[in-house]
Design goal:
By secondary structure, the chain is α+β, with helices and mostly antiparallel strands. It is 15% helix and 34% strand. A five-stranded antiparallel beta sheet has the order 6-5-4-3-7, with no helix packed on it. Strands 1-2 form a two-stranded antiparallel ribbon.
């Protein structure tokens, strides 16, 4: 079975290179890259918001990913965990399980309010381990 080599350029755009055949010619009908991978490749370069298991939120441009679901963001900024309004004095972090990803604009509005109220730090190019990702939200 022939495989397709995927190369990500520096501008974040995916470039799929068909494999070479037995005579050294590139085959045009290779489709070893799965549909799910192609869909993720379509959002490379888009602005992404990732919440990790300790409550921090990292916002940056989706640069690449790997088979372990690790994600690399460029121009990333890190925001402190969002606290519940009633527990602000204790500094309790809002718990959010993996199946409770943001579903509506209320979460977007809450993040915007939180983003304006807190300080952030610039991380630049950042690797986010897949095992710590709670959710990824991409602005398409």
């Amino acid at each position: 079975m022939a495989t397709t080599t995927t190369v990500l350029s520096l501008n974040g755009k995916p470039q799929v290179t068909p494999p070479r055949g037995t005579e050294g010619q590139q085959q045009q009908n290779a489709s070893a890259v799965g549909v799910a991978t192609q869909k993720v490749m379509q959002v490379l370069g888009a602005l992404a918001r990732i919440q990790i298991s300790d409550g921090r939120i990292i916002v940056g441009r989706l640069h690449c990913f790997d088979k372990h679901q690790n994600v690399i963001l460029t121009d990333a900024r890190e925001y402190a965990p969002i606290s519940d309004a009633k527990d602000k004095s204790k500094g309790a972090v809002r718990k959010q399980s993996e199946d409770q990803a943001p579903q509506n604009e209320d979460d977007d509005a809450a993040f915007e309010t939180h983003r304006r109220a807190t300080t952030s730090r610039h991380l630049g190019m950042t690797l986010v381990p897949g095992k710590h990702i709670v959710y990824i939200k991409v602005q398409a």
